[in-house]
Amino acid sequence: MYRARILLCTLAFAVVVPAEAGDLEDAQQLLESGRTSEALERVNRALATNPKDPQPRFLKGLILVRREQEQEAIDIFMKLTQDYPKFPEPYNNLAVIYANHGQYDKARVALEAGARASPTYAVIHENLGDVYAKLASQSYGKAASLDASNVGTKDKLALSRQLIGEQAVNQSSKAEPPAPFVVTTGKVPATVTTGAPVASAAPAASELAVPLDDTAQVLKAVDGWAKAWAAKDVDTYIGYYASDFRPSGGEGRMTWERTRRSRISAPEFIVVEIESPAVVFKNAQHAIVTFQQSYRSDKLRTKGLKTLELVKVRQRWLIYEEQTSN
Length: 326
Known about the structure:
Elements: E1 5-6, H1 18-32, H2 36-49, H3 54-66, H4 70-83, H5 89-100, H6 104-117, H7 122-146, H8 151-164, E2 182-183, H9 212-230, H10 234-239, H11 253-265, E3 270-283, E4 286-297, E5 301-313, E6 316-325
Parallel strand pairs: 1-2
Antiparallel strand pairs: 3-4, 4-5, 5-6
Helix pairs in contact: 1-2, 1-3, 2-3, 3-4, 4-5, 5-6, 5-7, 6-7, 7-8
């Protein structure tokens, strides 16, 4: 497993007032010395003065990573990507957390967003290369297990493992530890609205060889789901969910459906926009789509990262799970 090397530098998002600057400087020094509880106290004091200031928010995320409170750190970095979508650092740090837990597809999506935001940001590209290599190693390993006679696959597997510092299966010597992902602190793609979704420009090496029309069909399903939601066509909207759909709140399917019907019917209008959807196939029958979702109505406005897991049922792609981070 990769472990992150944290570079303790703050974001150049905004100028802070002197009192906050003092607290932030103290917090950073305390973090560097390992005194995370005191560092967190200083950051919270700065946030009490200006809760929207990105610098203490970002530093708090770093502190929480050090304290292994990673879900709270994810929430902070995710919100920063929404509030400051032109800076790549929060995307990078999200990816590091995901990668350290073996969630390489999520890491790839976050890093690709950061790379589109800042094509010249070297750390993003280094980490993205490591993620691609890890995904490639997993895919080559699967291929080798399915066809042990394929020498070419074994050579590719050995090369990919060498790139990421993994020990080969038949080696008895201890491998060198892998190079760490780098956590850092700093631009993002043009908006793609519902009706014109696009997949990632360059799929990761580990993505399965699925037909291009399957990618198109997955995106078409997501587009239709969003359009039905915006049109307040509740029956069509519900029809995009699989019969065994698992609501994220743990409620039963029938309770969830009643709630959704009520919430979709209540507003006078609904607008749903999807930005930069990225598709990853777990297998030929299971796809994951991640995108930025903007929702507004006469009652509510939200924006956040949405993840839909879809399954293929009788040639239709239906939603099996969904998660939203606002």
